[in-house]
Amino acid sequence: MTEAVFVKCTLDDRRVEVIDGWVCLAGRPEASELTPLDEHPNRQAILKAVPGATHMAGRLPLTLPEASVAQAALRRANDSFDGSPRAVQERLQRAVWQKAMAEGTD
């Protein structure tokens, strides 16, 4: 298990951290990657609610400094390669899921 990297606290004092390659809210995984706000389908509503947001991590809006911390931690977690059969299976499952989502399959 890798060390948690603190990103921010929400208004209700829950911690947003990167843990084992996931952006987590209160220790629960939210997203494995960041989405630039320019590419998000609900960007206008997000900007209205959080004017400084530049990225989304699942349902979590992040400012540029927060996104920078999160992205660096995600990269560090991704750079450490685990070649165990379980880790390989998880990466394959994630790749299949991402391909299916990109093709519009639910």
From TrEMBL:
<protein>
    <submittedName>
        <fullName>Uncharacterized protein</fullName>
    </submittedName>
</protein>
